[in-house]
Amino acid sequence: MMIFLPRCQLLVVFLASLVLTRAISAFNSRFQVKRTFRMSLNSVPSLIVFDLDNTLWTPELYQLRKLQSNNQYPVAHEDVKLFPAARDIIEAIKKDPENKFANTKFAVASRTKSVEWAHDLLDQFELRDLFHYVEIFPGNKKQHFRNLKEQSGLNYHEMLFFDDARDGKYGNCEPVSSLGVLSVHCPNGIHEETIWTNALEHYKKWSSHKTPNTIIESNSSITTRMIADPNQRFKGEVTFVNSEKRFGFIRYGDPGTKEMFFHFNELPYGAQVNRGDELTFSIRTDPRKGKDAATNIQISNSGSDGDLVEMRVFSMNLPFAALLSNGYKTLETRNGTMFTPYPEGTKMLLHVGQRMYPDGDRHIEVMKSGGLNDEEISKLKSLPPGFSKGMAVAIVELGKTFETTLEQRSEPDFQRAVAAFGSDRCVKLGIELCSLIFVGNTNPISLYFWILLSAA
Q1: How far apart are CA 197 and CA 199, in angstroms?
Q2: Which stretches in the chain have pLDDT values below 70?
Q3: Phi and psi dihedrals of 141, rounded to 5?
Q4: Are strands 278-285 and 292-299 parallel, antiparallel or unpaired?
């Protein structure tokens, strides 16, 4: 059935439908604006945390030693100054004309030992009202953030952190990022506004996945430290070795992967490594420090099986290990029979012990009795560059082993060969030794497996 309406009624219905359509459209538009606004708010950190020394202001408070000695407080804008960019950013936050940070809170996390100074400077710079939470005490920066999490009720992934110290003993970005806080490394402080704007842009992208251990580097790149499977093996190349302090670094993985620290204790016993050597290793994380390091290291560029050699090792402390390696010492006297099972001509590796033999420098008197001067003695007592305690330094050939008497050991030539006075050592056996070659980068022998006989 069809219903016919007068024209005037049709006009009323048409106008009513038009008004309803526009009302629905306006509602949808306002809903979309509100939804977009909420999304925009979600992409801004709920808590932004600043370090103080060399991040917001300069210099670091510990450097003001003269004021400390005079028991004076530093004066804002004179002794301590805000970085100009940091000052401008703070002013922009306070004004916030677009209400961008309406739902954002701000905090301080500082490990300075000058706690009273830091609090006083916050007041002098008129920053106290900006910060909702203030954590200033020496110690672990992670504890600062545990406190901030408890006080604010926020999750770590809702926070953004600025600090000048990345990693190492005094590092902050790396340990804080391990909690799940996006950290910004600014080694020269917030000296440019782009550090701030880039960090906010990175946070928008990062907040979609919230990957922990992520750091915004000083060049605005992103580094994410992945927690390695302890059973996974990696292959890399040694890029740095400090033989004296017994540590080094390995380059591995993608070009952007941070080099891995290793300690000589993780090398096969007595092994030596040099720049360019290829290693295979696992990665362990120190649960106390939160630092990664290579473990269970194996040297992988030893060459083919034909290049491998198996040798026995004996240990000798300095200075005698150096005297033997340099060809001055040609006799060893011991009570033990460790060398008697091995025939003349047997070759062994000489390992340098970790201690200095305490003979009261009597060896110097012996060496001077042979006409050597201080410079010559010092040279003979020194290992070549690149060698140090704990290393295998030379290949030594054994001569004959024989019984000795005090009279024989007291002969001048015998004493100089041993580098010790005969009356100082109550021993029975003498062993002829000959140093053949230093174990160095140019040595074609790869040291693969060593057996320790004894430690001197």
Answers
A1: 5
A2: 1-42, 226-230, 256, 270, 287-290, 301-310, 336, 425-456
A3: -65, -25
A4: antiparallel
Give me the pLDDT at residue 204, please: 93
What is the CB neighbour count within 10 angstroms for residue 360? Answer: 9
Tokens linked to 186: 């600014």
Q: Which of 201, 197, 204, 172 is nearest to 185 (CA)?
A: 172
CA distance 283 to 167: 17
Residue 161: closest CA among 52, 42, 84, 57: 52
Nearest residue to 184 via CA among 225, 138, 220, 227: 220
Would you call 100 helix, strand, or coil by DSSP? Answer: coil
Per-residue pLDDT reduced to its tens digit, 200-224: 999 999 999 999 989 999 999 998 8
**Cα diameter, the chain:** 143
| DSSP string computed for 255-318 | TTSPPEEEEGGGSSTT----TT-EEEEEEEE-TTT--EEEEEEEE--S--GGGEEEEEEEEEEE
Q: How far apart are CA 423 and CA 431, in angstroms?
A: 18
CB 367 within 8 A of CB 328: yes
CB 80 within 8 A of CB 127: no
Write down the pLDDT at residue 257. 74
Q: What is the pLDDT of residues 36-84, one digit of tens each?
A: 333 344 589 999 999 999 999 999 999 999 999 999 999 999 999 999 9
Whether pTM exceeds 0.70: no
Is 172 in contact with 289 (CB distance < 8 Å)? no
As given in the structure block, the two tokens for residue 247 are 């540590």
Give CA–CA dist 222/159, Å, rounded: 16
Contact 218, 185 (CB under 8 A): yes
Contact 116, 57 (CB under 8 A): no
- Give all strands of the β-sheet with 278-285 in edge-to-edge order: 260-263, 247-252, 234-242, 278-285, 292-299
For residue 139, count CB atoms less than 10 angstroms from its CB and return exposed for 0-12, middle for 13-18, buried for 19 or more: exposed
DSSP state of 73: P
List the Cα angle 82/88/92 in 5-degree steps: 135
pLDDT, position 352: 86
Give φ, ψ of 263 to 5 degrees. -110, 150
Give phi and psi for 451, each to the nearest 5. -115, 125
Tell which residue, 447, 453, 319, has the closest CA to residue 398: 453
